[in-house]
Design goal:
The complex is a heterodimer of chains A (228) and B (81).
Chain A (H helix, E strand, L loop, with lengths): L1 E6 L6 H11 L3 E6 L11 E4 L13 H4 L2 H11 L4 E4 L1 H8 L6 E3 L7 E9 L15 E8 L3 E3 L2 H9 L3 E5 L10 E5 L5 E4 L17 H18 L1
Parallel strand pairs in A: 1-2, 1-3, 3-4, 4-11
Antiparallel strand pairs in A: 5-8, 6-7, 6-9, 9-10, 10-11
Chain B lengths: L1 E9 L6 H12 L12 E7 L5 H13 L5 E9 L2
Antiparallel strand pairs in B: 1-2, 1-3
The chains are: A alpha/beta (228), B alpha+beta (81).
């Protein structure tokens, strides 16, 4: 499986993401500068890393969502290929309309940077199949605008379609229904505020994130084997 | 040229932690009468006059300036000499 890690001006978790999938999970990966849209041909999975794309001007992720590379990523997602957005990547996915809702200022306004316990609400997804259902994992969070919000109708739809993939045990930012990560209806786009790529080795304080990348690689291999 | 003033506000019911912090700070300065504060954005554009100007500004608001999931907007148009 070949991943592209998209690098925007202001991305700062791109190398962590690259390290996690390539050096630790053992997949092919390439850092792709946001103007190099032709490099996405032949890529299997797209990874949108954390950081502050375009300095988070106007709203987090809003400027990046209008870039040419996002049009390519929309096409990629429409074909059912996997897209993972973490932190600023999640903000870009909601701003692009690839995922519903919005990410707002944390309830207590402060930027938070520490480990949080999450619950894997759904392990029947492309991204979480190696976890147990309701497994508690520890991932770092590092955000100032990570409070997930959506209207009542959208929330009901998320619940009805099992689109809530991760929740916080101790909701640190005021997210609706403790939501930490959601997927799209089709199941090939996942957005989450916590950082699985910073939890792939015990040295980092947790290696709970590794199973997320390994799930993606294993599920890709399975679907490829079926198609081949 | 037209001057466009766009006002963006959080939808009613959407938690506004920045507004809350401002309200609490005002109260701590002794302004107990402040019952609520909401923070919005104010954007000024200079736009060449042309057909469908209002429609085009509405489109700009929907596509970029405001996030319709959480924000409402309104705008004023005025001529610039």
């Amino acid at each position: 499986m070949k991943f592209a890690v998209i690098v925007f001006p202001g991305s700062n978790c791109d190398r962590d993401m690259y390290h996690a999938v390539k050096e630790v999970a053992g997949a092919e990966a390439e850092l792709v500068w946001y103007t190099e849209t032709d490099k996405l041909e032949g890529v299997d999975g797209i990874l949108l890393p954390g950081g502050f794309s375009y300095g988070d001007y106007l709203r987090s992720g809003s400027m990046a969502s209008t870039s040419d590379v996002m049009h390519k990523i929309r096409e990629h997602a429409a074909k059912g290929k996997p897209v993972l957005g973490v932190c600023n990547g999640f903000q870009i996915l909601t701003e692009s309309g690839l995922l519903p809702g919005a990410l707002m200022r944390n309830k207590h306004l402060s930027f938070m940077c520490h480990q949080e316990e999450l619950v894997v609400e759904d392990n029947q997804t492309f991204f979480t199949s190696l976890y147990e259902k309701k497994e508690v994992v520890r991932f770092p969070i590092a955000h100032g605008e990570g409070s997930y919000f959506c209207d009542e109708a959208t929330l009901k739809e998320l619940q009805a379609n099992n689109q809530i993939v991760f929740t916080y045990k101790n909701n640190p930012n005021g997210s609706i229904e403790n939501i930490a990560g959601i997927r799209n209806k089709q199941g090939n786009v996942l957005g989450m505020m916590p950082h699985p790529e910073r939890a792939v080795e015990e040295l980092l304080g947790s290696d709970d994130g590794l199973k997320l990348f390994k799930s993606m690689i294993a599920n890709w291999r399975d679907s490829y084997a079926i198609n081949a | 040229m037209k001057k466009v003033t766009v006002y963006i506000t959080l939808k009613p019911g959407v938690l506004d932690p920045q507004g809350k912090a401002i309200q609490e700070s005002l109260q701590s300065l002794g302004y107990q009468e402040v019952e609520d504060a909401r923070v919005g954005k104010f954007i000024e554009l200079q736009v060449e006059e042309g057909p469908n100007i209002e429609e085009r500004i509405t489109e700009m608001c929907d596509r970029l300036l405001a996030n319709p999931v959480i924000e409402n907007y309104q705008f004023d148009l005025e001529g610039v000499k």
